[in-house]
Each structure stands twice: as structure tokens, then as C-alpha cells.
Design goal:
The chain has 580 residues and is an all-alpha fold. 67% of the residues lie in helices and 1% in strands. It has 31 helices and two strands. α21 runs antiparallel to α22 and α27 packs antiparallel against α28. This is Anaphase-promoting complex subunit 7.
């Protein structure tokens, strides 16, 4: 889903001249100096790279420099103000960003019209000025700046002001992101008719706008009406492929599910469609969460709730997991989903008891794939990779998916069968071609040996190129950098991904790298950031506890005096009711 804090790239066309402010003495400056032009180009590069702190500091110099008296100088002044606003927005200094954008608009409007001609429209702007002495100047793209002003108002929860700014953009000049923003603002102001117009226009430009689909379904649009809108989309890459009936079918089914849920048709409609889509897209987190939402309305739903339990366990959200298991035990304790949810809950405390529940799920239903996956992972935790191989093979016989390949690779590596692990990873690549996760799996095998690390690096980098947001490959590549002593490269890689996605796992990995290089205060900051994002994260809690010992000068690996006593106090026979 698009967020309201995404900043569009600056757009500028020919920049006009404005009078020198009377508060300052006139400075004779025929054109911006090459040094200032180079600084502006550097600032644009910093903004593009997401280095907003550096960019906004440089912007302070650019926007406070003496204003040139010719068109090129005024053009650079306006563009510098917009860039400064972009940098401040990236730093979440929305009030200051608003001021910078409004100053840019004011400067632009006070330039004689003949200097800009008719270039103040929404035409695509370069965002870069030509040579300062050039006569072909680009004008400020006022519609883009208005959109940025609206983004700032929205971030400050000033929705009325944001709406006024957006309504000042002509309808024909609105881009996809502008229509989506305007649709949100109209919904907030309870103008559903105007919101529907904006959302429909979004889908005409690109059918895969999930937020627009959900909003229109909630407004009562039918699946037939959606099909009509999709048919009006221009013939380009974003259109649902007409020559691929399979692709069109699953998307239409997803839209139909959204319509069913919005009209409160759960069991006979929306849920059944989601379950059907799960067969087409196994382990799809988005669909799992949609099913979980349906469960909030109908708590008796059991299908795929074991997958939801595993998802909650991976997020260390044991409060929700506890509640889920409690509900499932009351609905039907004999279902395989209930057994696996219990296994997920017990895994943290007693891996052997968790294994008994995974085995029980397969006695209830020997074709339950998740049961084999769970059992295999537990055998790996219990240091029985030989048994894990059998479990993951059992899952593959029913349906080969990524989890079974990942499990097999881990099991073969634990058995030091590197050739079998590599063969399995390559097989995954053949079955799931164009899969970043399969590429990463091959990299994992190569990374085991020092001679294969260069190949591993190439596979990890290929996975990131194929799927730039794939954190698994980024974390694995960072580990590889650390192993080879390239801590600086690891930090730069992780920070780059952190600017794109504030994820707790990235903060934890950064904290580990900083702790290993004895930069303990930086490590502390990142562990705290991880816990702010996910207060339940066990790895962050343990890392923070270990770090605090280091900061006190205590060996974090030294056993505590009462550690053995605590282990003896664990009651292995604790029943489910007590655990819950």
C-alpha cells in the first residue's frame, strides 16, 4: 500500500526571475558560480540517495546564498528551495519542509510570466537545471510542489489544508500518486463520491492498486464494475495481461474476495476464495492476514490458522499466539491446525513437547504439509538433521514449495552433505525460476566454504537486484561481509536497506555488527530501535541483555551462577491449560 509520507522526485521546468528582497542589499551577480551549481547537483544526488541529513545541511548554504539577478540564478534558487524541502521532509521536519516549498512557490510566482511562457503546467520536469548561463531554463512544476505541500500537511494531520492544496491541481495533470492521495483525503472528509472518482482513475492507470480495490469494495462497487474499470486501462505493462488467462483469473478472484468481504459474505464467498488463492500462492503473508481478519469477524474459522500461528511465532507475538491457541482448543482440539498451533506455542519452552504435537497433527492428517514442515524444523532444532531430511521429503512428495527446499538445504548442510545441499538449491531455482529466495538459497550453500564466498556474494547480489526489498538476501550478504572482515560494507548495506524499510531484523543485524567492532553505543541504539518496532522481538531482548553485560565489563558468555538451577526448575509435564 502507498504511504502518505512518500516524497515524489522534484520537477522543474524554466525558472523565472524574481526581484531581490528589499531587506537585503542588491548583490551584483551575473549568474550562479560553478561552485554553487556543483553544490546544488550534489544536494540533488544526496536527496536521491536518501541522505537527507547531509542534504538539508547543504541546503542551508544554498538557500541562504546571495540571490543572482538573472533568470538562471533565480531558477537555481527555486530549485534549491524545493530540494531543501525534500531533504527536510525526509528528516520528518514537516513544518520546515512546508516553509521551503511555499517559499519556492512564492519565488516562482513573482517571476515575470514572459520568462516562463506557458511552462507552469504539469509537464514532466527534469529536476535538474541546465547550464547556469543557458537560455533554455526549466520552469517549476507547481503541481509536484503542491503535492509535496499536501504530503507535509497530511503528515501533520492537517487534512483540510492538504485537501485544499490537492484540489488546486487540475484533474488532467494528476498523476497516479496524486489521485491516490486525493482519494484518501476525500474519504477522510467523508466525500465518498469524489473519493470513488479518484480511486477509479487510479485503477484505470494501474489495476494493481490494492488500497483502491479495498476502498472501492467498501464503498459497494461490485466485481462486474471492477472488470469494466480494468477494461478501460491503457494497453501497457501495468494492465492485467490479456494474453495470460491464469494471471487475469487470480486477480479477478482476489477482487471478488474483497467485494465479498466488504458485503459481509464470509464463509460462502470471501474466505473460500482466499483459501483457493492459497493453493495458487502458498505461504502468502498478505492472504494469511486477510484470512486472519475474517477470523476476527467469525472466530470459528480454523483453516490456515496453523500458518497464522507460525507467523505470530516468527514475530515473537506470543500474546496473540496464546489467545489464538486458546480459541482453537475450544473450537476443535482434534484438528491438525490446533496441534500445530500448540507446537508453535510450545517451541520456545519445550522443543520435544512441540515435536509431539507436530507428530500428532500428522496422525490426524498425514497429508497436512505444514505438519511435515514444522516437524522437520523441530528436528533441526533438536540436532536430528537425518530425521529432518525425511520430514522435508515428505512435504515435497505432497507439494514442492520453498519451505521444503529451504529445510532440506539446512538439513543437508547440518549433515555436511554440501553436494546434496547444492543440488537441492539448484533444483529449487529450476522449479521457482525468477525467485529471489531460490537464488539466496544457492548463495547460502556456497557461503559455507571460504572458497565459495565469492559465488555466494554474486548470488546474494543477484537476489537483491531481482527483488530489491528482499531482506533475507541483504542480511545474508551483510553476514558475508562481516565474515570477510568488511564491516564497513556491511554497515553501509544495512543502512541503505534501513532507509527503504524500517525493519527490526535490520536494526538487530546492525547492532550485532557494531557490537562486534566495539561500537557499543551505536549497537545499543539499534537494539532499542528494534524493540520500538517490535517489543516482542526475542533476539533484540537477548542481544540487548548481552550488550549491557559487555558495557559493564562482564563476559557475556560466562555462565550465571543459578543458570543450572533455573534449568532444573522447568516442569516438562506442564499441561496446556497451565501454559495458556
Amino acid at each position: 500500500m502507498l504511504t502518505s509520507e512518500a516524497t515524489g522526485h522534484i520537477s522543474l521546468q524554466a525558472k523565472p526571475q524574481i526581484p531581490i528582497q528589499k531587506a537585503f542589499p542588491r548583490v551584483a551577480s551575473p549568474s550562479p558560480s560553478p561552485e554553487m551549481e556543483a553544490a546544488r547537483e550534489s544536494m540533488a544526488a544526496l536527496v536521491d540517495a536518501g541522505l537527507h541529513d547531509c542534504a538539508q545541511t547543504l541546503g542551508c548554504f544554498l538557500v541562504s546564498s546571495a540571490t543572482a539577478s538573472n533568470e538562471a540564478g533565480m531558477s537555481m534558487k527555486v530549485e534549491s528551495l524545493v530540494l531543501h524541502g525534500d531533504a527536510l521532509h525526509g528528516e520528518k521536519e514537516y513544518r520546515r519542509a512546508l516553509s521551503a516549498y511555499k517559499q519556492a512557490m512564492q519565488y516562482s510566482k513573482s517571476i515575470p510570466r514572459q520568462a516562463t511562457g506557458n511552462t507552469r503546467s504539469s509537464g514532466t520536469a527534469t529536476g535538474r537545471s541546465p547550464s547556469p548561463n543557458s537560455c533554455s531554463l526549466a520552469a517549476l512544476n507547481e503541481n509536484e510542489v503542491k503535492f509535496k505541500i499536501a504530503l507535509c500537511h497530511t503528515a501533520l494531520r492537517e487534512h483540510r489544508e492538504a485537501l485544499q492544496e490537492m484540489e488546486g491541481i487540475p484533474s488532467k495533470a494528476r498523476t497516479l500518486k496524486m489521485n491516490l492521495m486525493l482519494g484518501k483525503l476525500y474519504r477522510i472528509s467523508r466525500n465518498n463520491r469524489a473519493a470513488a472518482v479518484c480511486y477509479k482513475e487510479c485503477l484505470r492507470q494501474c489495476p494493481y492498486i490494492f488500497e483502491a480495490i479495498t476502498a472501492l469494495a467498501e464503498m459497494g462497487l461490485s466485481s462486474k464494475e471492477f472488470s469494466l474499470i480494468f477494461s478501460q486501462a491503457p494497453n501497457r505493462g501495468s494492465k492485467v495481461p490479456g494474453d495470460s488467462l491464469d494471471a487475469q483469473r487470480w486477480w479477478n478472484r482476489y477482487v471478488e474476495a474483497q467485494c465479498c468481504i466488504a458485503s459481509h459474505d464470509y464463509k460462502g464467498g470471501g474466505l473460500d476464495i482466499y483459501l483457493d488463492l492459497m493453493q495458487r500462492f502458498p505461504n502468502n503473508v498478505h492472504i494469511l492476514l486477510e484470512i486472519a481478519k475474517v477470523r476476527l469477524i467469525d472466530p470459528n474459522i480454523m483453516t490456515y490458522m496453523d500458518e497464522y500461528a507460525i507467523l505470530l511465532k516468527s514475530k515473537s507475538d506470543y500474546t496473540k499466539l496464546n489467545k489464538l491457541v486458546h480459541d482453537m482448543l475450544h473450537i476443535d482440539p482434534a484438528r491438525p491446525e490446533t496441534c500445530l498451533a500448540l507446537a508453535a506455542l510450545w517451541e520456545r519452552k519445550d522443543e520435544r513437547k512441540a515435536l509431539t504435537y507436530a507428530e500428532k497433527s500428522l496422525r490426524v492428517d498425514d497429508r497436512h504439509i505444514t505438519g511435515y514442515i514444522m516437524k522437520g524444523n523441530l528436528h533441526l532444532l533438536l540436532n536430528r538433521p537425518d530425521l529432518a531430511v525425511t520430514d522435508f521429503r515428505g512435504a515435497q512428495e505432497l507439494r514442492a514449495d520453498l519451505r521444503s527446499y529451504q529445510g532440506l538445504v539446512r538439513a543437508y548442510l547440518a549433515l555436511s552433505k554440501c553436494k546434496d545441499a547444492l543440488f537441492t538449491a539448484r533444483e529449487a531455482m529450476k522449479v521457482m525460476h525468477q525467485s529471489a529466495k531460490a537464488l539466496k538459497l544457492v548463495g547460502d550453500v556456497h557461503a559455507i566454504s571460504s572458497s565459495g564466498r565469492e559465488k555466494a556474494r554474486k548470488f546474494y547480489e543477484s537476489a537483491i537486484r531481482l527483488e530489491p526489498g528482499f531482506l533475507g538476501a541483504a542480511l545474508a550478504l551483510a553476514d558475508l561481509h562481516v565474515v570477510e572482515g568488511r564491516n564497513k560494507e556491511a554497515v553501509l548495506l544495512l543502512e541503505r536497506h534501513l532507509r527503504q524499510c524500517a525493519d527490526d531484523s535490520l536494526h538487530i543485524k546492525l547492532a550485532q555488527v557494531y557490537a562486534a567492532t566495539n561500537m557499543l553505543s551505536d549497537a545499543l541504539s539499534h537494539y532499542q530501535s528494534a524493540l520500538r518496532i517490535n517489543p516482542h522481538n526475542e533476539a533484540a531482548k537477548k542481544g540487548l541483555e548481552r550488550l549491557e553485560k559487555q558495557m559493564k565489563g562482564v563476559d557475556p558468555d560466562a555462565p550465571e551462577e543459578d543458570e543450572e538451577n533455573e534449568a532444573d526448575d522447568v516442569d516438562g509435564d506442564q499441561d496446556d491449560a497451565e501454559l495458556l
